[in-house]
Amino acid sequence: MSDDNEYAIENTDAGASLEIPCEAGSVKKGGYMNIKGRPCKVLSISVSKTGKHGHAKCNFETVDIFNGKKIMDMVPSTHGTTVPIVNKTEWEIANIDDEDFLSLFDEGGEQKDDVKLPTYPDDLAKKIKEAWNDGENTVMVTVQAAMGMEEIVDFKIIQE
Amino acid sequence: MSLSYASRNPSSSLNIMRQCCASLKTNQITKFELDLNALRARPDAVDFFLDCLLHLNEPNSDVELFHTILSLRHLLLLRYLTLPADLPTLVRDFLVHLLQTRSDLVPYNIQAIIETSTLLFKRSWLSPPTPPTPPTPTHTYKNVQICPSIPSPSHLFQTLQSSLSNPQIDGIRILNYLNNLLEVVSNQKGQDSLKMTVQWHKDVRLNFESYAEKCYDIAMLGLSLTPQKQPPTNTLYIKSVFQTLSTTLNWEYGGGNHFRISTPSQLIKPSPKVKSYVLNFEFIDTCFKCYEGAQEEGVRKEIREVIIALCSVNGKIFSNDIERTNYAEFLIQRLLSFVRTSTSDSIEDWAVTFLRVCKNFKINLLKQVPHFQEFMTCLTEFTLSTFNSITSLVVNSSGDLDAVEDYQNRTYDLLLECIVIISSESFFLEPATQATLKEEFGRVYLNCVENRIKICKAVEGKCVREEVELDELGERLDEEELAEQINAISTAGRLNLLPSLACLNNELNRSLGNLGGLFESGVGEVGEEAAGILEEVRVLILFMGWLVTDEGGGETPIIPEAIVESCATPQAQQISATITQIVTSLSNLSSYQSTKISSSSASPIYSPLIAQQLMWFFSRFCRVYLMPNASLYDGLEQNILYKENFGLEANSQGLIDMCTKSAVLYITSWPGEVDVVEKTVKMLEGLCGGRIRAGLARSEGWRCLCNVFWFVGAMSIHTNVTPNPQELNAMGLTPAMVEGFRRLNYERRGDVASVLACGSGGMPDENNKTIMNKTLMLVEGVLTKLATVISDPNSNNTHIEAVDLCSLCVSLYSGICRSPFVGIVDSAAEDSAEAYVLTKFITPSLPKLAALMPIYGPVDNSIKTGLLTALTSYAELYISFLNPVESTALYNAASEMIKGYSAIGIGSSAKKSDEEDQHEDVLQAIKLLTHLGTKDFIDVVDNSGGATPTVDVTEVLFYGINHLLPLVSDLLEYPKIAHHFFDLVGYIVEAYPEKLNSLPPDFYESLVGSLLWGMSSIDILVGKSCLRAVEEMTKEHVKNNTLNGILTQKPDTLKLCVQRLLTDVVMAPSVVFDRIDVTGGALLVLIAADLNFFTTYVRDMISKAGIVQEQKQQLLAAFEQLVNLETIQAGIQGKGIQGRNARVAFKKTFELFVKHVHSFLVVV
Q1: Residue B801 touches partner A, C-beta closer than 8 Å
Q2: How far is B410 from B525, CA to CA, in rounded Å?
Q3: How many domains does chain B have?
Q4: Residue B1108 in this model has a pLDDT that exceeds 90
Q5: ipTM of the predicted structure?
Q6: pLDDT (average), residues A113-140
Q7: What is the pLDDT of residue B4?
Q8: Residue B591 lies in a domain
Q9: Paired residues of A149 in beta bridges
Q10: What is the pLDDT of residue B781?
Q11: Quick check: B820 and B688 in contact, CB under 8 A?
């Protein structure tokens, strides 16, 4: 079959876009979608319509991946939506300054100084600071990036 | 009766009791309860309360008397075996005496007396009182003359009968006593308080049956005395009479539970011994006369219960059919006059009587009943009036369905059930009766169409007016209910097909005219009126669909017999023409709507539901009426339906063209309307069967569908493929169609791939070969591109776009893998090389698909599930076609995939979800292994191909289970997963017990552990699978020592099986008799495997059991009787019939053993 294949294969271009278009009906529970420019994780999806003869509408119950706020949205089946490209990277903390900015570096030695301690969840910043102030161990943080925003979403202590 | 009892100073006892009850009057409930419990705990409590009972006879002692009676009941039943044997009997008889003599009793004390006395009667039913053994004399005993004695059940009935005849005694109390006694003996009441074994309750009930005539005597005597009862007591009296009659009539003979509240279709089978009472026209007449005279609804309700019971009388009580016919005639004659004048609150009961008559006497007998035609007319009138009132209520309340009472809906459903029963057996009737039936039920059909439209319009109008948001589930339930009703009424519609079709045709023409006006008007919003028009059309499509086609799930779709037959009558021409007219009207509607939405898909006036309903209709219609296989019918080729409708190729191409064209437009215009797309794909699947497929390739719509599928697929592979209007035009496409198809959910795109493969596969012509090849090439192209992405070191495998490509790839493969092999089967005779085109295509891709699991499985759950589903479908549909090389490829891919899946599955799937659906991946993995297991069976059975896979199937299966076991163990509480898993494990252990010896010891232990868990499961199927597996595993070991190796490392596994089987299955309080057979089989081999252990364990278990010594001895004796070494030996070693007979004998003995043991151990 392959010999007759008339389609040439090319590499995909991952591109640098922040989001990709997606149909409302293709968004999956547990996946991501953008609502009013905010990247959100989908908690539940239901389909409804006004009257039996109405057009289907997808109702999404989501949570903002950066501030944890619940956001609801309704998208008619004839419309599309966008899905954010969410990246998570691991960084080691080199320093935390007085204004709560972190100095981070990754495995390859690349540095990053533009991330502040997170404001959500409430106690995450405090826990990271405490872990860091302990002094003895390496503290790794997970930085989540989507739609041009970056935020620390997790941390772990590497025992030395 | 006299009694020696420890009487103290009665006034002291009464004072204590009064003080105790005084707390109640001041609302000190807790204090009262504590005081009463303290009194019940006194060592002389029985004597104390007895004292109170005998002396509480002054006014204003009602509360004290009530608690005295309840306390005595509690104490007597609790200490029954330790009390002097005649003490409970005395109390029982004294209570009857109170009932007869004390006219001042308040109702709650009457009830307490009746319930306590009847319970005590039941307790002493089988064991008459023995001479008293005097208790330790702590007080001065004196003989007291208390009341007349009732020494036996015969005396009780005699007492009740004489009391009823005695004008000085309240007859209501006596009737209620009998009523209560029936309820207590039949275990409807008070079973828990007796704490006796199942067998005991059963014995009492069977013994009681010998007094059935006495019960009838009393109830009939009660009925005969009704004229003597004067107002105001007569109402309650008559009510009691009929309550007792109803309970007596509903007694279930033969040891079952008798029932009063039963299903509408439940029949009863009284003993022939009571024939003279039940089949007594004078009695029946009296019942109806009493009903006529009764004013109060409570009384009328009780009489109706008796009439319902009379209509349900069935069985050996009738000596012959003449007797049955006469009985039915008498009942029907009486019924008719009442039903016609029934009031609204009684209609449900009358509908139940009608249903019981229909179910009970069947049309074969009813047709001999002189009043049968009247009965049908009455049934028709009743149905019409019920539905008319339901419709009026909904319409007058502007679409509020809650305006209809539940009983009205239930009544209508019951009446429809009657109509279905009679209609489906109408061929038994004489032509004249049949003609009447057609006419009568034809009216019901027309009325139903008319009213249902009104109701649906009103309800939809309300939805639109109030902007109600409909949820999927609610709507689906409503739909199912509506479909069920239309399906039922269609049975009546087919009796008189032409008027039914004509009615639908006229209504459709009218409403399509309105719909056309609506579409052309350019209205932007769906208002109330527009919604009404749309709803009317939808309901008519439903009616038409159900009238001309059957549901026939899983069967070869065929034209309903009633329609084929109608088309061989003088009306055939008109019927055929009307069907064609209706189908043409609906085709035109579908074409019009699909064309309109292709340019304005968002316009709210073009209802997706209409599209969905149209696709539903054509899906059902096309697979039945388009070029049907005439060999399935008698003389279809001469039938006008075949010759002039859509039977011939020339007549059917137009409809195929319309269907495919509409389909492609619906899919591309409304990719987000999931239900429309699903129904459309289903309709296309319908076109892929039989001779219709030849017409597909000739249709423009099919070519468009192929083109749009290929073009959009190419866009996913090549970044330089863009929609060019001219190029698209040449393919019959538009940019909007391409855009629409691009937006189609990948899973649905997989469906389209499946349909294309199915529609073109195995067809000999070049056109179809091209379609098949291009479709498969495209699917392969997507996989190749994905492989390129994965192998490129610079690209990110898990980037969202790569994941998206993988999703598409998996969906398309999944579609191809589940493509029904109709093409293969059809073409097998014509071109066998083409027949295996799909298996040849899929085999080389299998390793690549398996390799996707570890990369994309952890990233996206739907990919993980999709990959497993694809392989499962492939294994299910194609495994019997695979040659050894292809089989090997499948086994290897399955092993790899399950290995990859188990590595990632623990992280995501093991997290338990509230919904079983969330674990579809686990289910698919289990199903995959199950289907792989069938190959061995197929090859053993069919040696013609000589195909023997080079991979050992059992190794793959055990390997798979080993990987799945950790994932599944937490999910076994989900019934579907448990069923499939234990089916698989049961099958493998049963089919390959010799392989168990070579398993890794820990895996073997886990496997047996899962069987131990499953054998005591409350789920019968799971239990059976596991018990069968244990039986086969042990049997093989007993015969050939197959487990010797593994048992040296895990020596306790079989012992654990014995322990679990005995404690959690055989001796479990709630033994499941449905699996007693397999339990016996498993026990037989386990005993044979290690008799010494079994004997030791049984003795140990019995010695530790918390039962009395006598029961321990009984239990041990029962076990000794069960273990008959000769039978066990023959069951294991015996060959052929001898072995089978021995096994059957052991199982029978085991069943008796279980029943026996549970009769003295299980207490309810």
Answers
A1: yes
A2: 36
A3: 2
A4: no
A5: 0.76
A6: 88
A7: 47
A8: no
A9: A146
A10: 95
A11: yes
How distant is the Cα of A96 from the closest Cα of chain B, in angstroms?
Answer: 31
Percent of chain B with pLDDT over 90: 46
Q: Does residue B361 fall inside a structural domain?
A: no
Q: How far is B861 from chain A (nearest CA, A)?
A: 9
Q: Does residue A13 belong to the interface with chain B, where contact is any CB pair within 8 Å? A: yes
Q: Hey, what are B415's tokens?
A: 């009446």
B535 contact residues in A (CB cutoff 8 A): 52-53
DSSP for A13-80 reads ---S-SEEEEEGGG--TTSEEEETTEEEEEEEEEEEEESTTSPPEEEEEEEETTT--EEEEEEETT-E
In terms of DSSP H, where are the helices of B731-836? Answer: 735-742, 746-760, 766-791, 800-817, 822-827, 832-835
Contact A1 B777 (CB under 8 A): yes
Whether the predicted pLDDT of B1096 surpasses 70: yes
Contact (CB, 8 A) for B300 and B284: no
Contact B463 A50 (CB under 8 A): yes
Q: What angle do CA B24, B30, B34 make, to 5 degrees?
A: 100
The pTM assigned to this predicted structure is: 0.82
Nearest chain A CA: its distance from B471 CA (Å): 5
pLDDT at residue B940 in the model: 41
The residue behind tokens 């599930």 is: B865
Question: Locate tokens 């699903």: which residue?
Answer: B678
Residue B105 falls inside a structural domain: yes
CB atoms within 10 A of CB B261: 8
Instruction: Tell me which residue range forms the domain holding B25.
Output: 1-151
- CB within 8 Å: A48 and B609: no
Which residues is B469 bridged to in the sheet? A50
Q: Is B471 on the interface with A (CB under 8 A)?
A: yes
Angle made by CA atoms B1079, B1084, B1086, in degrees to the nearest 5: 95
Nearest Cβ partner for A52 among B475, B717, B795: B475
Mean pLDDT, chain B, integer: 86
CA distance B550 to chain A (A): 25
Assess if residue B1089 is contained within a domain.
yes
Question: Looking at the predicted structure, is the pLDDT value of residue B1114 above 90?
Answer: no
End residue of a domain, out of B151, B186, B208:
B151
Q: What band does B914 get if pLDDT is binned at 50, 70 and 90?
A: low
Q: How far apart are CA B483 and CA B477, in angstroms?
A: 10
pLDDT score, position B950: 57
Alpha-carbon gap: B821 to the closest alpha carbon of chain A (Å): 20
Is A20 within 8 Å of chain B by CB? yes
Lookup result for tokens 């953008």? A34
Is pLDDT at B668 greater than 90 in this prediction? yes
What residue type is assigned to position A2 of the chain?
S
Q: What is the mean pLDDT of residues B314-341?
A: 90
Which candidate from A6, A23, A85 shows the least CB-CB separation from B671? A23
Note whether A4 contacts B777, CB cutoff 8 Å.
Answer: yes
The pLDDT, as a whole number, for residue B500 is 96
CA distance A79 to chain B (A): 8
Is residue B461 over pLDDT 60? yes
Residue to substitute from A50, A53, A72, interface B, most B β-carbons within 10 A: A53
List all residues of chain B from 841 to 860 with a beta carbon under 8 Å from chain A: 841, 844, 860
> CA angle, B951 as apex, B950 and B955 as ends, to 5°?
155
Chain B partners within 8 Å of A49 (Cβ): 469-470
Q: Which of B116, B151, B186 represents a domain boundary (last residue)?
A: B151
